[in-house]
Amino acid sequence: MSTESPLTKQETQTSIFAGHLGHLTPDQESTLEAFKELLGEKELYKSHSVTDDPDSKPTHDDGTLLRFLRARKFEVQEAFQQFKDTEEWRKANQLDFLYDNIEINDYEETRRLYPQWTGRRDLRGIPVYVYEIKSLDSKRMAAYHKSASKTSTVKSDMKTQASAKLLRLFALYENLTQFVTPLCTRLLDRPCPEVPITQTNNIVDISGVGLGQFWNLRSHMQDASTLATAHYPETLDRIFVSSNYSHQPLTLLLHQVLTIVITQIIGAPSFFPVVWGWIKKWFDPITTSKIFILSAHEVKPTLTKFIDLANIPKKYGGELEYEFGMMPVLDAAAQDSLTWSTSGEANGDSGHKQKTFPIGPMRWVDQDITEANGDGEKAGQQKDLIAMGSVQGKERRQKIASQREPTAILPGDPGVQS
Questions:
Q1: N-terminal to C-terminal alpha carbon distance within the chain
Q2: Is residue 312 within 8 Å of 374, Cβ to Cβ?
Q3: Mean pLDDT across the stretch 133-146?
Q4: What are the DSSP calls for 152-188, one per residue?
Q5: Are 110 and 163 in contact (CB under 8 A)?
Q6: Model pTM?
Q7: In 10 A of CB 288, how many CB atoms?
Q8: Which of 102-106, 135-139, 161-165 has the least mean pLDDT?
Q9: How far is Cα 338 from Cα 341, in angstroms, rounded to an integer?
Q10: How many other CB atoms sit within 10 Å of the CB of residue 49?
Q11: Contact at 8 Å (CB) between 65 and 36?
């Protein structure tokens, strides 16, 4: 992807990446250290995950810790409380076990009802997701609720107040921090590659969605919003909302209200002020400040300010062959960074075959690389991508690909993330 950006160098460093690793003020750096110290005192963080190995990685990487600090405006006590609540929530719901053992068909059914990674990134290297609301009709949602009620993805002795439907959603959110953002962080073809990728852009397509469908989906959408705000803070950067409607007066009004919005709502229908009144209650003020409302003729001009044309789906004026529901279609840099095992599946037409990913959860694990002469000396490290989950109750542990560590030293290589 291109490393050129319409943002000036000053804007890139002071506004877009403010509060991120590599772009902290002296006060923010001191706050991060104080936050680590407090978490360490409360036994919620260790600078070395293996106490007798000084080369081992911390239990949580700096990018994750900074998400909590940014969400709480670098107020240590407030960030600590949210981090503590999140760790307790993860333990109560056995998030690692859930993610590693969920039935892959249950996971895939859920994935198709929420934003999906296209396999592409914006001009800053941040992953681009797409969400088509129209596909979530009443028949499909009823079938999902029935299926989700029968989900069995937890230990028999596990005590949790979360419904089976929410447990599926929890597993889906883990995919962002365990698979997508670590992959994107290790791609250096972007401005400021020292900044770990910890956020996403979302194109939300509301074309053809009626008022009744919005109303019926309010609980479905609020579940995701509540989860993200409470336990995955600062993972949302921009939202692009798209539709085939064109209501310029409405769009202008919403732009006046949402002056610092970065999420884009494309093609808002005439009833959208009512819907927006609901939606604003589902999100925290910081999130609503990131939303762009776009009429049909604004979609392509706006998206191309932030995303290369090659990485925008054709449906929204770009060049990417991508439809909602597909597995990620990786850009050339991402493809080239991976060494695929035989488990990688072909994706695309006959002229553009490429490897892609199987359905279900995936996790990166560290793997040492030894010298070719066989003397056992460590020559470096790579990340192996392992397909997790279960198939009819049997664990799936299959290597899909490996990604070599970047040659440049990054200050925030993703390790264990909340």
A1: 28
A2: no
A3: 89
A4: --S-TT----S-HHHHHHHHHHHHIIIIIHHHHHT--
A5: no
A6: 0.84
A7: 19
A8: 161-165
A9: 9
A10: 14
A11: yes
Going by C-alpha positions, the residue among 152, 239, 230 that lies closest to residue 200 is 239
Lowest mean pLDDT among 107-111, 152-156, 397-401: 152-156
Report the candidate in 97, 66, 303, 13 with the shortest Cα–Cα distance to residue 197: 66
AA identity, residue 397: R
More confident of the two residues 186 and 219: 186
> Where does the pLDDT of residue 65 fall: very low under 50, low under 70, confident under 90, or very high at 90 and above?
very high
Buried b (16+ CB within 10 A) or exposed e, 211-241: eebbeebeebbebbbebbbebbbbbbbbbbb
Q: Phi and psi for 176 in degrees, rounded to 5?
A: -60, -50
Whose tokens are 């107040």? That residue is: 161
SS3 109: helix
Taking the CA of residue 210 as centre, how many other CA atoms within 13 Å lie in the half-sphere pointing to its CB?
5
Are 214 and 250 in contact by the 8 Å Cβ rule? The answer is no
Nearest to 102 by CA among 192, 185, 169: 169
Helix (H) or strand (E) segment spanning residue 37:
helix 26-41
| Pairwise CA distance, residues 338 & 82, whole Å | 35
Confidence of residue 286 (pLDDT cuts 50, 70, 90): low
Contact indicator for 279, 258 with CB cutoff of 8 Å: no
User: What does the alpha-carbon distance between residue 308 and residue 5 come to, in Å, rounded to a whole number?
Assistant: 9
Q: Which helix (H) or strand (E) holds 263?
A: strand 263-266
- Per DSSP bridges, beta strands 378-387 and 398-404 are antiparallel
In 3D space, the residue among 388, 385, 410 whose CA is nearest the CA of residue 399 turns out to be: 385
Residue 355: closest CA among 322, 326, 330: 330
CB 292 within 8 A of CB 262: yes
The closest alpha carbon to 119, from 198, 200, 196, 20, belongs to: 200
Radius of gyration of the chain (CA): 21
For 110, list phi and psi in degrees, rounded to 5: -70, -40
Strongest mean pLDDT among 89-93, 205-209, 292-296: 89-93
String of DSSP letters for 351-364 = TS-EEE--SS-EEE
Residue with token string 């989950």: 389
